[in-house]
């Protein structure tokens, strides 16, 4: 099992979280399975940006984003160089530290 450290997020996990993931599993699926209710409007089909995370540590341990993911990431709120769609970011055997941005594109467009 691989550890994913989730930095505190005001709404989803105010204290942060440490979850266990299977290598080969997506970050999104691991978070959901461990009670971190990250938004995933497209049901993890790489058709939105609501599961956007910023990988603070371990980014280079994963395969780089493909062209489709890159296209969607361009639309993500709060995009950073180490941003990924968590539904497409596949866990390896290296620990990850991820930050879930405060807002998603859905929240921004709804003026939250």
Automatic annotation (TrEMBL):
SUPFAM superfamilies associated with the record: 2Fe-2S ferredoxin-like
Tagged with keyword Electron transport: yes
Coiled-coil annotated spans: none
Any Pfam family matching the protein: Fer2
Domain (2Fe-2S ferredoxin-type): residue spans on this chain: 2-104
One BP annotation, GO: P450-containing electron transport chain
Keyword line: 2Fe-2S, Electron transport, Iron, Iron-sulfur, Metal-binding, Transport
Keyword Ribosomal protein attributed: no
GO molecular function, one term: electron transfer activity
Cofactor(s) named in the record: [2Fe-2S] cluster
Matches recorded under InterPro entries: 2Fe-2S_ferredoxin-like_sf, 2Fe-2S_ferredoxin-type, Adrenodoxin-like, Adrenodoxin_Fe-S_BS, Beta-grasp_dom_sf, Fdx_isc
Cellular component GO terms held in the UniProt record: cytosol
Family indicated by similarity: Belongs to the adrenodoxin/putidaredoxin family.
Name of this protein: 2Fe-2S ferredoxin
Species in which this protein is naturally found: Mangrovimicrobium sediminis
Lineage, opening ranks: Bacteria, Pseudomonadati, Pseudomonadota, Gammaproteobacteria, Cellvibrionales
Gene (UniProt): fdx
């Amino acid at each position: 099992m691989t550890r994913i450290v989730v930095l505190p997020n005001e709404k989803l996990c105010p204290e942060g979280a440490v979850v266990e993931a299977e290598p080969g599993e997506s970050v999104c699926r691991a978070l959901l399975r461990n009670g971190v209710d990250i938004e995933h409007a497209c049901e993890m089909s790489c058709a939105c940006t609501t599961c956007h995370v910023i990988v603070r540590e371990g980014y280079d341990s994963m395969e780089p984003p493909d062209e489709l993911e890159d296209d969607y990431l361009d639309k993500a709120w709060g995009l950073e160089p180490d941003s990924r769609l968590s539904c497409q970011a596949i866990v390896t055997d290296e620990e990850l530290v991820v930050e879930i941005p405060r807002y998603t594109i859905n929240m921004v467009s709804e003026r939250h």
